[in-house]
Amino acid sequence: MLNDLKGKTVLITGGTKGIGLACGLAFGKQGAICTLTHKWGSADEHLIRKQFAEAGAPEPYIVEADTREDEDTRALLRDIRERCERIEVFIPGVAFAQIVNSLGDISRRSLLQSVEYTSWPMVGHLQEIKEIFDNYPRYVIGLSSRGPDEFHLNYDVAAACKAMLETLCRYLANRLANDDVRVNVVRTKFVSTESLNSTAGQDFEPFVKALNPDAYIPIDDVADAVLALCSGLMDGISGQVLMVDGGASFYDNLMGMYNRRNERTTVPNG
Amino acid sequence: MNREDILIIVKKYIADAIDDVDCDTLDPSQSMKDIGINSLDIVEIVSRSMRELKVKVPRSELSKLGNINELVDVLAQAVENKNNNA
Q1: Closest by Cα among A146, A260, A248 to A200
Q2: Looking at the domain assignment, is residue A264 inside a domain?
Q3: Is the pLDDT of residue B73 over 50?
Q4: A198 to chain B: which residues are within 8 Å by CB?
Q5: Starting from the edge strand earliest in sequence, which strands make up the sheet with A9-13, in order?
Q6: Of A26, A224, A250, B77, which has the most beta carbons under 10 Å away?
Q7: pLDDT score of A44 more than 50
Q8: Which of B38, B44, B50 shows the shortest C-beta gap to A98?
Q9: Does residue A67 belong to any structural domain of this protein?
Q10: Residue range A220-242, pLDDT digits in tens
Q11: Residues of A with Cβ-Cβ distance to B47 under 8 angstroms
């Protein structure tokens, strides 16, 4: 049965940019009331409100809240609690990790900081939600990447954080199986986001697109997959890490590049 | 709130972020990297300093910061702008 998301509360941390924002818009189009959080100076609130208005979505709540600060998280959740009795969907979307250019960049501190931003909120926020709402969200969707399984440039620490997120997803799904909660992670390969560009470098996207124009998938495809997981039609799925890449993970390898060699035109700096 | 006050605030949050830093002997012209401040630390230090000073600095300014003096300059400018607009 399809869920009616109209008026339901969706919380997306790190929801003012990239995949988080695309998810917000997807839920907003269904009539959900989205709360999007951001860390200081990283949101163009006017533009976001305009995007929601143009999509016919309810105006989102845009809240500055540092996902690492317990005080911010509690204040955020108490504010939401005054508006509703349950968070329907929680998307811990903050991904903030040390960019690694050399082994010396990795330190215990930077790894722990990165975990606190990227992996821990899936658990920590859920615990706070339970404390403040006395229930859990019906759907929890983490956002990950191929980084844990394949080389991503400068991504050592981020990949470790994503691997942790995926593992926690499986265990959370098990622990919350009897609480009407589904916990899943959506993985993407290449999606055009500020985050990927800042990690891999500004030259990366044009380089890849010259090799394989289909390697990047539209950001809305990812958001739609997240929406589908919360639609009610996929309630049998929990504890899963689902790849959303238009099939690129299978064919986007050296053999695939060889197969497409005659399609290539110009490779930047190649 | 003058530049020296802002430097004290910034040093306080550097000390919170980095275990083995002696703020009394910290040279503000030293590069952040040499002090052992990573990119996540910078966000943390700036974020906390801004909260205390009740100012906002554009995120894009961070990538330009090389040392503590430059950070203090950016924050001092933000404080001045706030006072001018008050």
Answers
A1: A146
A2: no
A3: yes
A4: none
A5: A61-64, A33-38, A9-13, A87-92, A139-145, A182-188, A241-244
A6: A26
A7: yes
A8: B38
A9: yes
A10: 999 999 999 999 999 999 999 99
A11: 39-40, 66
